[in-house]
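User: Predict the complex with zinc ion.
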Amino acid sequence: MSTSVQDPPSLPSWDLSELYHAVDDPRIDQDLTSALEKAQRFESIYRGKISQPGISSQELLLALDAYEGLLRNQSRPGCYASLHYSTDTTDTARGALTQKVREIGSKISTHLIFFDLELAKLPLESFDRLLSDNCLDKYRHYLEQQQALAKHYLSEAEETVLEETANCRGRAFKRLFTEVTSRMKFKFEKEGQTTELTQSELLAYSYDADRSLRQQASQSLAAELQNNAHVLTFIHNTLLHEKQISDRLRGFEHPESDRHLSNELDKAVIDTMTEVCVKNFDIVHEYYDLKRRLLGLDSLAHYDRYAPLRPQKQQIDYNEARQLVISAFQRFSPKMGDMVKPFFEKDWIDVPPKPGKRSGAFCAAVTPDHHPYVLLNYTGKARDVMTLAHELGHGIHDLCAAQNHYLDYHPVLPLAETASTFAEMLVFEKVQETLENPEEHLALICEKLEDTFATVFRQISMFRFERRLHETRRQEGELTTERINVMWQEAMQEMFGPSLTLGEDHQWTWLYIPHIVNTPFYVYAYAFGELLVLALYARYRQEGESFLPKYFELLSAGGSQAPARLLQTLGFDIASPAFWQGGCDLIRANLEKAKLLASRQVS
Ligand SMILES: [Zn+2]
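Assistant: Here is the predicted structure with zinc ion placed in the model:
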């Protein structure tokens, strides 16, 4: 892929040529056609055979191997299309390719839908008999998960219609959301000049030392969201309604039930985690009281949340960030240091912010036999260094999990944030050591606390908001923007208590959160991941190097085991409130550290 001429020369774009050369690469069509033909052949061989009570374990093994291979091959064009699209969502050719791949993907799926449905129809006795044969061990987890899903499947005809129409229902609205939010431009005035910023550029001002710039960024965000409120609210309402129908038809009791099922977690575990976090909101209240005093302000507004407590370092050069991340990984484990290098050396990362590029950052796993890619919008802020560490942590996780077959490759969401959060912790420790004075140390601890709040308590507040949003839509019908604004303000204000007031501008900010739109109830996975990582990091501190094999084993498991079972092997009981409280206590310990450093500063 060529590099756009406007890119700052120092910031590399990713090279997707290992997948395909361009939108019109003829291999895309060849691969799609071949995937479609293979799916048709698969159907002609196996339809009606899988649900036969007498099917042998060898027959099922052959079918599963073929099925896994089909899904693996099919995912390549899809990955390329969505990665290429994400760096310029305004390019109509890329949008069209994404849509085409999705449409053919749906066609392929219609030939494969029967497979999981027939597995689900297998009588329990046959199922037990099959699983008692070791030859199916590698698919044991997948088969058990299919059994759990069985009662939520509809008939094959219904599933086929839903799949074929998905691209002009929910998926289309999700795409519209990405396009609307990626095209938003934010007016910003600085030193007498008005410019138009991308979302990533604008949000970088939330961390600016100048309060008026922070406030202006908040107002500009609110103004542009308000401009788009009609279409964004419409998208939310449509998706809420679609999920309501789907949950009713599929027999999911609560709006979040299907997420728990795909996360392989019991509702009780997440309810316990949520309750424990809410009980610990006073950590946030106390922290922002301290921050208000440190900033010397009478009261804090929402745009002061990330106000810096130390003079901002000049831009952190991307190369400097790269060195820092590599050396932090290297110190933890030379193996991890080596694993991360090709991301830089082989251009697996798309670094610069560009007009039309998706905002934020992500790491995209392709298949076990192809490396992942990372997307950034690097603006040189300290936060961007942590984001780089975070996404590369995901990358490490994907590389470790590559020993699994495709059906067990992706870790379930609550474990998907383990390596990313752990990687941030490694970089944080490294940065902490480079600090010269207590003021800087205090500022760094405060930044860490703010990040942790954003990952734990903010996500829990969003989870509660989402729950209420779905429930209210189900009770009251279509919701107005204003109605949702109120729910959003209430949910988020609870976390801050009296320590900080969320102003008018803040009420619009639910409108552009991609997770709520793209993957309902994704957010609690962040809190789960961070609290788990606090426990893992504490363990690493205790055990030193002997912790490393256990850590890599956890990552290498990918999606091959349910979280509760996998974490049990490390001695963690996620059903117990004490486990989650342990994580919150570690956050509180950081708050106490900050208070102590602050009291020394004052005296
Ligand atoms: Zn992440």
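Residues 390, 394, 417, 420 surround zinc ion (CB under 6 Å).
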